[in-house]
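Researcher: Please predict.
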Amino acid sequence: MGTEKLATILLVEDDIITALFERETLEARGYSVLVAKTGKEAVELAESTQSIDLVLMDINLGSDLDGVETASLINRSRPVPVVFMSSHTDEATLSRLEGIDAYGYVVKGSTDAVLCTAVSMALRRAKAEKAATGLLQATQAQALAERELRIKEAHHRVRNNISSIRAIMSLQLSTARHPETVSALQDAIGRIEGMGSLYDMLTGEEHGGNIDIVPYVDSLLETITPLFSNAPDIIIEKQVDDFSLDSKRMFALGIIINELLTNVMKYAFSGKDRGLVRLNITVYDETVILTLRDDGNGLPGDFELERSSGLGLSLIKMLLEQFGGTLAMRSDHGTTSTVLIQAPGLRLKPADEARYLAGGPEQSAVA
């Protein structure tokens, strides 16, 4: 029987004489045998002895727990093959085994060869099942590793493609002379930068795909402002609550910040030597509130948001429609743009809530 001689068997039998004969028979075949007289004792032994490879269980134990109930309790803590024994072969007795995965059934009074063969077959089945489970787990682990590798390769290619597009358009921007061409390239590069930053954060997150707002906004500002190297001396002050947002809303928010800030950088300070921009993003009543203020020239006298057909504002309106959001713009010693985006279930992180209770977050400035 090879390695089966090293197996440990828990024999559960309430009849002392029967238990003695069966133990001697099994030990003569090289098995290590533990004996329990009651179901309770068997459960305790199974829980304390991890080396048990098989349970040989009498169905009628004459105690509070019968063999079927005992086997069920043992298998709740850890799966162990069970071979049942009984002197009864009637339908009522056998039907009791339907709710449990029995590895065999031995009629008491059978020869020693029958008992040992049943034990040997059960152990071989358990060994084969364990090997099959290990093979399945190894196959699944390999498939998962291959899938992760393909995903990483795909992410790498996407990043390279975004970088290539960005580099080509930046090269075109550096050689462009026509104002409309420069403006169009700045807009396009800003949008690409916003999508690239979001993509980098999405592929680096491990908590359900939500993105932290603070580093994303920082990344956007770092990529948008250098596009306007010929702009006046502009200081950007930002105050951003600490929260996470799902990728769809974060994508919309990033595009909106890019469009509004790009317009400010291009038009708000025409004819001025310097300017101030304040970006505020806060959360109230499951709503993201974005406010962008500048102290520039303000909106044109004939400006009407509803009739505006520019690509940037049209894009903002289209994105806001997805989430029941709104955009409002007004002139007040410059221009103030306010965006509301509904985000059910959204809350500030505990640390930011504590700061507000203590007097509010600090502002930071970007030159």
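Model: The CA atoms of residues 172 and 262 lie 18 Å apart.
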